[in-house]
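Following up on my earlier thread - several people asked me to post the actual chain instead of describing it. Fair enough. Here it is, all 555 residues.
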Amino acid sequence: MRVTLAIVAVVAMAIVGRFFYDDVISATDIPRAVVVADIPIGNTDRATAAERLAGLTSHGEVTLTFAGSSRTQSLAAWGLTLDIDATLDAAEDTRGGGPVRFLRWTAAVMRDREVEPVWSVDREILASQFEDDDLGIMFETSTIELVDGAFDPVDTQLVPLADIDALVAELLAHATTTGREIDVPVVGNEELIGDSSLAAAANVLTDTELVVRSGGRLDESVIDSATLREWLDVAGATTPGDFGFDPLRVQQTLADTLPFGPVDGIEGVQFVIGFDGLPYILGGIEGAECCADDTAQRLYEHLLVGPEQAVVVFPIEPDDARGIQWHHALGVSEVVGEFTTFYKPNQTRNINIVRISEITRGVIIEPGETFSVNDFVGRRTRADGFVSAGVISNGVFTSSVGGGISQYATTVFNAAFFAGLDFGEYQSHSIYLDRYPYGREATVSFPAPDLQIHNTTPHAVVLWPTTNADSITVRFYGTPYVTGEQTDQSSRREGTSCTRVTTERTRTWIEDGRTETDTVTARYRPEGISCNGASTRPTTTTTTTTSTTVPTSVP
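Reply from S.P.:
Thanks for posting it. Predicted structure:
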């Protein structure tokens, strides 16, 4: 019995000693085992704990749905921030006092102490979101609208009013929830009644023409009444004094109607890959960009004083600014598709792969446009830096200038496949080569077969092939819009000797998650054998025939 009591006493003294050491001798601002939103901050000072919690201030995103539309942005953009000081105060309070202090320390030895983060919402920032027409949600309304080229009062309608107090509570309750989606609470509705007098004032103001000219040029353009009405921004207006021209609409119209130099070309544009892995523009072709930031305001002020007084001359931006702004307008923000294939170092064919990669590096495929390898590169010649290497001609291996560039074509094909881009003309190798994905590859020769990539997204993409000693990597840079993945593959016999391979791709659109499947195909045959089983190998018999061109695939 005495031994048992002695053991208990020793254990108790050890526990008390450890408590005294932790809580008095080596005490820190934050007690042991404290965790905030899965972030351990125990046994640290306030400064260290604050650094660890800093990441929570930009934690995740939240989607708000209001008036039938949605917007996703960061917590900070909605006005939600972490109150680090208040959170750390709560963490320090877990120490307690007296016997409670010892009991809490004992519990912390066995498990973490969870402390809820303290969040705060800036009501002004949050409320302002519902007044910003740029959001594309019905946060700002108008009592008039443009109908068939003239302004009319809107039909009477009920406009929902956001319940900011209830929304604040929702945001605070879901601050640390991943993938938050909140339907904005509605406190009631406001009746919106059309304003016929405001519509009449807008019609009278725009019942005229403007003659405009860009700075440094003599070319003039007449802006008619219909265009002026499309320019007029009436959102949220309650009096004619609230009117103004929409800068974006003015910019788009003037860029299309006035000569600013060759703004649509890409010749001379050079890209570099920055330290962040993204492409940046170095320069551009001669020309100018429409327009200066205050152009819309200048034109509107001229309209108010009387457009018949004189020609409006407005400044333009120089070419170097145009190049930078134009590049940013492309929406090239990150890698949207990439693929790598490998080859043996120090092969002659590698020279051709490197050369065609250099020629096409930085090609821009704008929305709705198609990139054709043959149209862009042309015939591969020695004068352009290509050399003779292995090709497949009529089902047998031989050599030709440009041999090997089908490895470039296959890598481009796969990068486009996973980027969700569309294909125009393409053709697989006639003989399967195991360095390529089975059934998912392409070959090129001149003038056929070609490889064509069609950009059906609303954003431009930049083609960026790079090479090293043993591989080629092709990346498409752009704005994330759609992704592709292989989801199925099947094959069947074709003729007596060929195999037809069908590869299914599922594309997923990032904005709404919808999916769609399509397929790519390949046909393979044994070397020297056609699909009907006949030999395609050349014979030794010499005959005089009319010369024909047989498409050659370049392996």
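The chain has a mean pLDDT of 76. That should answer part of your original question.
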